[in-house]
Amino acid sequence: MGTIEQASQRLQQLKQAGVELPWTAAAPAVGAASEQPAALAGALRDVGARPTPLAEPRHAVELPLQQLGSEGFMIPGTARTRLVDEFRAVKRPLLGNAVGTQGRERVERGNLIMVTSSLPGEGKSFVALNLAISLAMEMNYRVLLVDADPTRRVSSQRLGVAQRAGLLDLLTQPALPLEEVELSTNIDKLSFLPAGAPNDLATEVLGSREMHALLDRLAAYPEQRIVVFDAPPMLHAAEARALAPQMGQVVLVVQAGSTPRGSVQHALSLLQECPLVMTLLNQSRTPVASSPYGYYAY
Questions:
Q1: pLDDT at position 7
Q2: Dihedral class, residue 284 (left if φ above 0, else alpha if ψ from -120 to 50, else beta)
């Protein structure tokens, strides 16, 4: 097959994969294309197709919804509460940054949202799970909640899957596919990825090329899936500092009346490389009228 035929075939493959080719609108006529076959072929080689679409999870887990509800978490299908309304307000700018809306440009990797805090005990896992549930209530998006706290693994324990394979196994076992460890749940459009087997090199694993490749794949289809990472506290775990620069958005949870100002400032200084950082005031009993970001946490 000649150079022109190879280039034409590659062009057709990229179009079928949904890759935007900005130069095609002004592409030369067929007769003129023969004058620059090498340039066309080189340009096509420089454009990579999007990663393979994500497959459906092969396994499922039944979340303890009644228990979660008794612990203060929102449960789909229950009565409207203050907590539900507050997370509706919290998620709106995050969604706008993730997929782009009228008047708001999409943030690169904006569908990758890391939830962290300065110190342990500020409610970041509570926020991560409620945020994931609230996002799953949207009509048009699927949500993946990832336990990215390999030491404490609060989310995995709370959902009863701490012993299941998960993120760290996925990154250290090349033959293990995402759909084998991702778990669908009994909350519609919400799936969960446990932390996985303990690993003494968790920081290095989360900062590896394998992690970057996984995030590239998860970020490639923002119109289909929002990914929420329950990450460790910034000041207590190097894993959080390895993860943060790879995210599109970071939500820093601050416990009202408890977190020292210096700790918040230190955490924010560690997040300077992140494209977008938002703070969320947790456990505020007297929220300012203009701010929806105060609520009670378990």
A1: 53
A2: beta
CB 116 within 8 A of CB 231: yes
Where do runs of H (alpha helix) occur along 159-208? 167-172, 178-181, 202-206
CA–CA gap between residue 168 and residue 165 (Å, rounded): 8
pLDDT digits (tens, 9 = 90+) for 44-82: 444 456 677 788 999 999 999 999 999 999 988 877 888
The domains of the chain are located at: 3-46, 59-282
Residue 275 CB neighbours (<10 A): 14
pLDDT tens, residue by residue, 216-236 = 999 987 777 999 999 999 999
Weakly modelled stretches of the chain, pLDDT under 50:
3, 22-35, 40-41, 43-47, 288-298
8 Å CB contact between 256 and 283: yes
Q: Quick one: tokens of 151?
A: 């030491």
Q: Which whole-number Å values give the CA distances from 114 to 62, 82, 226, 228, in the listed order?
A: 24, 24, 11, 6
Rounded to whole angstroms, the Cα distance separating 182 from 192 reads 6
For 10, the 3-state DSSP assignment is: helix
**R_g over Cα of the chain:** 22
d(CA 274, CA 244) in angstroms, rounded, equals 6
Separation between Cα atoms, residue 205 and residue 212, nearest integer Å = 10
Question: Helices 82-99 and 124-136, interaxial angle, to 10°?
Answer: 80
Q: Sign of torsion, CA 270 271 274 275?
A: negative
- DSSP annotation of 99 reads H
Query: What 3-state DSSP class applies to 197?
Result: coil
Q: What is the identity of the amino acid at 44?
A: L
Q: What is the CATH number of domain 59-282?
A: 3.40.50.300
Q: Look at the pTM and tell me if it is higher than 0.85.
A: no
